[in-house]
Amino acid sequence: MTYVHAKHDAPTTFWSKYIVSYDHKVIAKQFLWYGIFFLGVGGLMALLIRWTLAFPGQPFPVIGHMLFPHTDGVVPPDTYAMLFSLHGTIMIFYAITPILIGAFGNYCIPLMIGARDMAFPLLNMLSFHFAALSGLILLASLFLPLGGAAAGWTSYPTLSTLIGSPGLGQTFWCLAIFVLGISSTMGAINYITTIISFRAPGMGYFDMPLTIWGLWLTAILNAIFIPVLGAGVLLLLFDRLFGTTFFLAGAAATSGTGDPILFQHVFWIFGHPEVYILILPAWGIVSDLLSFFARKPAFGYKATALSMTAVTVLSTLVYGHHMFTTQMSPLLTQTFMTLTMTISIPSAVFFANWLGTIWRGSIRFDSPMLFALGVVFVFGLGGLTGLYLGTVTTDLYLHDTYFVVGHFHYTMAASVLLGGFAATYFWFPKMFGRMMNETWAKVHFWLTMIGLNGVFFGMMVVGWGGMHRRLYNPFVYEFMEKLIPMNTFITWSAILMGIGQLPFVYNFIHSMFYGEKASENPWQVGTLEWTLPSPPIHYNFEEIPVVKCGPHEFGNPNLNNGRDFQYQTEELVKGPQA
Amino acid sequence: MMFDLSRLMMNPWKMNAGLLDAFYPPKDISTNGHLIDFLFYYTTAMNIFFFTLVCLGLFGFSYLYHHKRHPKPYYTHGNKKKQILITTLIGLAVFFGIDATITSISNQDLVNTFWKFPTEEEKPVKVEVLAQQWMWTFRHPGEDGEFNTADDILVNHDLHLPVNRKIEFRITSKDVIHSFYLPNTRLKVDAIPGRVTRMWVELTEPGVYDIACAEMCGTHHYLMKGRLIVHSEEDYLAWKAEASRIAKYENDTDNPEFYWGWKWGNN
Ligand SMILES: [Cu+2]
Ligand SMILES: [Cu+2]
Q: Nearest 5°: CA angle at B34, between B31 and B38?
């Protein structure tokens, strides 16, 4: 049965409208701003890191002297460790997660399934407030006397215990992640319930847009695995604050012994699914956008939905490939290698379906489509380069090198970022009632695309050259001297990519106020949110819609309503004799 | 300090090393490194093949089916028998073309080589390795052939080894997790407090090479560098004799810290 929200009056004060709002559309925007802010912070950190790697000992231009007065503007080694640790943490947990899941999850789920709001609006609001609190804790850690966490985003003990990380930075990190975990769990429960119970009448699971499939699977993984991470960081907190020894061992452990490898198991039981938590919404969005802009039904819709589900299930069984160099038992090692490889089958299936979708379509290259096609390209590279790391012997060489860094940036950063941009350009008119500028969007696309491929492909190259990760100055090693030019090239690409985001920021803010007014359905798409005014009214649907056909009904030759698509509220047009 | 523009504007193409030099891994000086290189190149070849197909689809369809060139899309849901068959075949082609193949090659390499540790009869050179922030220490057995005795040879930073002998390392860490990484042999293994991990190599070329720590281990992780000094068989024996002689009067055997090693035992 379908649940429906009763309607209340719209809030009127600034405080109740924008700060303590229960409205999923407002909470979505809160997450969007939050994510974009942290994307800027994480991006600046990336530039500081890249600068250090290409021009060691050179002051960072313009703001270097302000940030590092004691070293004449040069990034010092301890700060460098903090920068790469927090760059990873921020990009994963504070930028990508809030944008893809917090913002677009919140925005799209009720609108696309025909609901007036999330199942639990109060929980939804709290989810953002906990995220905000977590963000504040993390930002505050930057101003601690010994700085923020500096043990890598993975925070492996015993480096992350008092043995390797005195000071409060790491403690703040654990707290921030734990609080963020509460926020994500609240969100996940809400998304799952909403999708199960609040779908409009007539909308079966296989009538949902693939975006919703992606978000749903992500929410399920989040609900199961975020608590695992929570448990891990909680035990780490105990080790740091209360003298327990869950993760301590060896000569430096003075009382009792635990096992630092235990943390790695806990971390990656969460950590591998986390990759899919980030990528699944992007896969869903791309699957939809390819169909929308090729003006053709999604090719093999069911197969795509089911293979995304298969990947989700498999993702819970393969985490050990992150730990081959810890020398697990041979049987475990072989098992994890084999299971990892099986992910290729469902991935290849939906990949083939993506290409099947644009095959013989009538493709419009608007900015959301460009970014969606960009995802296909970079995710192809990211997926294939994972093979080297799932294979144990090549991993023995490549593990902890820049090859890994390049690979996971292709899958998590490049694919998810491009997917997030595709979503932003696509739903912006619905969110803000105005269009973004196409020309600037295209400039943004090409600069980002060229920049990110230069960065991430370059990283894989120097990784194969043997360069390992998290080095303040790699060139103290003789075997890496020949990698200096490539590192310089990567840094220039990163700068290009950074500059490439300026048109986006300008376009986003400018279009919010001065963009061309958006019609109800500027992209000519049939999913439910496009039946509503832009932006939608409070509580979205005056009448709850009744769904009568799938989300990708384009180019049906029997259509005679002057459109090339059908709304989901319309009965599927059949041929004359049918 | 002023911002040095000349360093920034340095043309990477005009340095002693060029961009293309980054595409080569460090020189392989081991008997088994080529197995890893081979698998890497095999995977790369297959990846190039499949990625070319992806690009043909992506760019080819984008060109052919641009809405100006192809205004009428083909109405299909891709769930006809033939279409499902093709998709399934693609999935299986990827799996058997790459995954199944590289998994079995890798598994064979592990079972037949990398996990086949030298036996006592092969008289391997044995080294105990201690990692700590931010230094490598290598313990060689003295004349008694036993570890953790007063005549052990302890060397910081430098690892002296002979060519053409099997060498087995047993590795642990004193403080945080490190990773013992020999780029020129394509191998690494973590050094973990409270555990002993193992690795074996056979070297082929005398010379001096880098030893690195591959696992983030703190602020000076990047300085945790050692030297791998590969000797000819005679040079190695000469080094060992000399080192043994020095060890006799330099070893601080009163200090309990000296005995961080352990009996080698049977694995
Ligand atoms: Cu993984
Ligand atoms: Cu180290």
A: 160
